[in-house]
Amino acid sequence: MKETIESELEAIGKYPKDPASKSFWEYDNQFDFEYGWHIGYLEAVFFTAYLQMRKKVPDRNDELEIKKTIALHSREIKKLLSKRKTLGQ
After folding, report:
1. Residue 35 CA to chain centroid, in angstroms?
2. Where are the alpha helices (DSSP H) in 1-89?
3. What is the number of other CB atoms lying within 10 angstroms of the CB of residue 30?
4. Please, what are the averages of pLDDT over each run of 10 residues along the chain (89 residues)?
5. Listed residue (78, 19, 73) closest to 42, CA to CA
6. What is the pTM of this model?
7. What's the whole-number average pLDDT of the chain?
8. For position 87, what pLDDT does the model report?
């Protein structure tokens, strides 16, 4: 999980904000949308890996462990998102 999170953090810093995405996703707040997207992406990756490795969905305890692991990096995700430049700048 650590390598996956580190890889995602690196990717966040490399990609600029894309305000054009608002036209098809119809969100009100770009920062909140992108933050939620990255958190959801990490959850999906970990849940999928869990399912593939254990051939079952995570129980409540394992689900909470996944979420806690991601939450440990939430401030860093927010910091990286807030530093990104807009596409074309």
Report:
1. 6
2. 2-14, 21-25, 30-54, 60-71, 74-83
3. 16
4. 87 81 88 93 94 94 95 94 73
5. 73
6. 0.84
7. 89
8. 62
Nearest CA among 73, 35, 66, 38 for reference residue 50: 66
Match 């129980």 to its residue by tokens.
59
| 3-state secondary structure (DSSP) of residue 19 | coil
Question: Distance between CA 79 and CA 89 in Å, rounded?
Answer: 19
Q: Number of C-alpha atoms within 13 angstroms, CB side, residue 64?
A: 3
- In Å, what is the CA distance from 55 to each residue of 46, 52, 67? 13, 5, 20
For residue 33, which amino acid is it? F
DSSP conformation class of 84: P
Sequence letter at residue 7: S
CB atoms within 10 A of CB 88: 9
3 vs 7: CA distance, rounded Å? 6
